[in-house]
Write a structure and sequence with these properties.
Strand 12, helix 13 and strand 13 form a beta-alpha-beta unit. The protein contains 16 helices and 13 strands. It folds into two domains: 199 residues, 3-Layer(aba) Sandwich (Rossmann fold), CATH 3.40.50; 181 residues, Rossmann fold. The chain is of the alpha/beta class. The strands form three sheets. A six-stranded parallel beta sheet has the order 10-9-8-11-12-13, sandwiched between helices. Strands 4-5-6-7 form a four-stranded parallel beta sheet, with helices on both faces. Strands 1-3-2 form a three-stranded mixed beta sheet.
Amino acid sequence: MGSYIRPYELAKHWANLGIGAVVVSPGFHHLMESGPRGGPEVIGGVRYFFTRARSYAGNGVGRILAMFQFMMMAVLQSRSIAALAGWPDVIIASSPHPFGLVSALILRKLCGARVIFEVRDIWPASILELSNATRRNPFILLLAWLEKLAMRRSDAVVSLLEHALPHMQACGLEPRRFHWIPNGVGDLDETVPVPSRHRALLANLAGPDCRLVVIYGGMIGVANNLDLMLDVAARRQARGDRRITFAIAGDGVRRQALADRIAREGLQDVHLLEKVPRAEWLDMLGQADIGYISLADSPLFNLGVSPNKVFDYMLAGRPVLFAIRSAANIVERAGCGLVAEPTAEAVDEALEQFLSMSADERHEIGLRGRKHVAEYYTYALLAQRYSGVFATLRSDIT
């Protein structure tokens, strides 16, 4: 299953609504916590089918080949998948990469299913923003063509990004086929006690003088802009301020670069922690003081952001430092933290505001976030919203 819980949570709650689902996934991908896998499995009551898949590392040619392989295997193994629950009425092709859409459109011809394209990231625009790729790159041209195909040929588009409709309209999407369904939270009490080694480590980071522990957890990639956290730590260390310690828990292509920079600059108050399973991670958050999120400074994020880690921070009742320039801002909406421009000076100032608060004040801010996600962003509620999209598609058929 891996650290991306959305398909699992939606399928679990659809079952409670009488809607059967099979999650089709490649047998290997970079978010998996164990693998590789193959064939049918039942995980936590949810039916999965893992297609044959090649392993890869990083974001190079291997990953692109794995995308093409999944596109083919989803069709070639479709009869085995259908054996689990019959041919589908609806197929959801979930991005970021759009190759699953090709599989879905082929299967629509074979079995008459309706196709929903679920957009988690805007490809190829996000690649152009965050890499050295050019618009004339053959892979970028292919992605741009597939994006337009998705907007024009899908029966509905579900976007995790709240303000993405204008961009999608420019690619050919009719507004009536657009639906916003963000990420959310699973069971409100979904925690497993964090191992004692992690609890002891966090207690050690806080130290006898009870320094604030600011934690980030998730992918460590270019888009996550974690060098910004290191910039802030360097500023604070330069002026001799040791009241905050920073922890980064996770893995990704930028982890080693961050480790090298921490060692090179002698950043005493930044610590790289190993990745932990999700349920343990939620309990681990409870041992920290502030949840941190940043993204690269890009106009693309004005279309919306829906990072799982923010929902995790809110679920754990931690106040959030949101260093993202975006028109869609759940932290501001919920009043559960502080919003800062993605600059070292602005983030440093926000941290000073947190330091000026009492522990009770920070606790109250964190509770607002937990209350907000419990009221508006549980996967039980989001699954109901999705079922409304299914009903719309059925009415279109009749």
